[in-house]
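queue> pop job 88
queue> type: inverse folding (structure -> sequence)
queue> payload:
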């Protein structure tokens, strides 16, 4: 591990916030979050090398869910992807979209069905291979900064919960600015480190995801990043049907259960956590059965309330080039 300077302002004047373990039990090593005293960016300190990070993206991270849940989950994902696509088309009727961190390509497939030329960047080979199985998508399995995509080519660039994973967010967002058309839009979704959830749950917060999430943004630091990279923030939303209710529910369950992210791991079909025993799995299943239904209702109410207070667990923003021209037809 190397000592970490702030990637946003370059300062090494940081303060330690707290530490916690990786939620899948892959290591006993605690990971530390630090905050830059100058610009406020929160990040993993010290940072990990690419080789060290690679083992935390285990093979099952991108695999399909268990067979019994696959049809239900894929249906939900398709519906949510279509909602994302509709959200974009309410603001711009473009031609070309790039999704950075496209995963299995579900969102790009929704855009393709609407007639868009759909491109994706996914550095995970397993994720990229799944995306390539969907017809009509242009998928690159390398860093965005290495792709050499044409300048001003894309009407829309999206980063749906990928910016927090990226080693150098400034370099990425400068590249996004370069390849964005003058009339284009950038859509970003990230966890909100200034949310009430993060302050309440700390190491049990579902969206913390150390060490895979290397950076943790607030509305202020995200605005600072965009401005530094030549982009202008237009709108911020503190509510996400896709992420906020489930994130709150799983965070509460992390306090009550033994195995971290018990519900999420079962839905994803991840291997049983290393520290999990038969007794702990029975206990966690009972907690989920008893607390799950009322928690689900509470999670939706809490998500609406926190969004109204501008303290949602996740942020969704869109930005433009300051020299923006008229929208493409």
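queue> result:
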């Amino acid at each position: 591990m190397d000592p970490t300077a702030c990637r946003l302002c370059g300062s090494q004047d940081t303060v330690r916030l707290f530490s916690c373990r990786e939620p899948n039990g892959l290591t006993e090593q605690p990971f530390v979050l630090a905050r830059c005293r100058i610009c406020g960016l929160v990040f993993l300190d010290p940072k990990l090398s690419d080789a060290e990070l690679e083992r935390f993206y285990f093979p099952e991270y991108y695999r399909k869910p268990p067979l019994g849940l696959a049809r239900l989950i894929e249906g939900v994902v398709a519906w949510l992807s279509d909602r994302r696509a509709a959200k974009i088309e309410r603001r711009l009727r473009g031609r070309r979209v790039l999704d950075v961190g496209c995963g299995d390509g579900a969102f790009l497939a929704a855009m393709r069905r609407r007639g868009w030329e759909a491109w994706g960047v996914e550095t995970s080979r397993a994720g990229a291979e799944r995306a390539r199985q969907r017809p009509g998508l242009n998928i690159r399995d390398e860093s965005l900064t290495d792709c050499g995509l044409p300048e001003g080519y894309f009407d829309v660039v999206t980063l749906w919960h990928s910016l927090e994973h990226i080693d150098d967010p400034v370099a990425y967002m400068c590249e996004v600015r370069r390849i964005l058309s003058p009339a284009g839009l950038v859509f970003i979704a990230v966890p909100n480190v200034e949310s009430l959830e993060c302050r309440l749950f700390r190491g049990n917060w579902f969206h913390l995801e150390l060490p895979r999430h290397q950076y943790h943004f607030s509305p202020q630091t995200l605005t600072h990043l965009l401005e530094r990279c030549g982009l202008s923030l237009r709108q911020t939303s503190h509510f996400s049907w896709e992420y906020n209710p489930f994130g709150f529910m799983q965070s509460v369950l992390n306090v009550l259960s033994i195995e971290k992210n018990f519900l999420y791991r079962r839905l994803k079909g991840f291997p049983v956590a290393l520290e999990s025993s038969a007794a702990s799995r029975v206990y966690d299943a009972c907690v989920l059965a008893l607390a799950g239904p009322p928690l689900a209702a509470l999670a939706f109410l809490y998500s609406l309330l926190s969004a109204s207070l501008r303290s949602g667990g996740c942020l969704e923003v869109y930005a433009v080039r300051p020299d923006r021209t008229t929208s493409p037809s």
